[in-house]
């Protein structure tokens, strides 16, 4: 009976063997910032598509009259749609990567994809390149789910409320 209790997932360690460390707190706090990436990106889409300099650079408005070009609404719609299509691809990709290679590989995959997508988005020279980069750039925030699992497994059951709050 004693072994069953010790091996149960609800077993609480004695108070003298706390797994709380300041290092764990710092790591879990920094990892918990990853989901902010999606909220930030969502807020940037609408403000970016409303900037006159962006519209001029991408050729979505006439430089002399500032009137929208004939295909401006279609291109802006494609930019917005690819943003969320990339998020769906991220959800589908994350489950495969995590199941196949584990959470650490999933986190590494997210980081590399994030860097590549961000560089592509910043270097976009035309609407086509910007739309293609959205697929890579926006697939990353939804890949942040392995971070949450890592946080919860890294904390002891006594500190579960703290890890959930972080």
Automatic annotation (TrEMBL):
Compartments reported by the entry: Membrane
Matching PROSITE patterns: MFS (PS50850), SUGAR_TRANSPORT_1 (PS00216)
InterPro entries, per database record: MFS_dom, MFS_sugar_transport-like, MFS_Sugar_Transporters, MFS_trans_sf, Sugar_transporter_CS
GO MF term set: carbohydrate:proton symporter activity
Transmembrane segments: 27-49, 78-98, 105-126
Membrane topology per record: Multi-pass membrane protein
Gene3D superfamilies on file: MFS general substrate transporter like domains
Record's keyword terms, sorted: Membrane, Transmembrane, Transmembrane helix
GO cellular component, one term: membrane
Chain ranges of the Major facilitator superfamily (MFS) profile domain: 27-166
UniProt keyword Transmembrane, yes or no: yes
One Pfam family here: Sugar_tr
Family listed: Belongs to the major facilitator superfamily. Sugar transporter (TC 2.A.1.1) family.
PANTHER family: MONOSACCHARIDE TRANSPORTER (HXT8), PUTATIVE (AFU_ORTHOLOGUE AFUA_2G08120)-RELATED, PLASTIDIC GLUCOSE TRANSPORTER 4
Protein name, UniProt field: Major facilitator superfamily (MFS) profile domain-containing protein
Record organism: Extremus antarcticus
Lineage: Eukaryota, Fungi, Dikarya, Ascomycota, Pezizomycotina
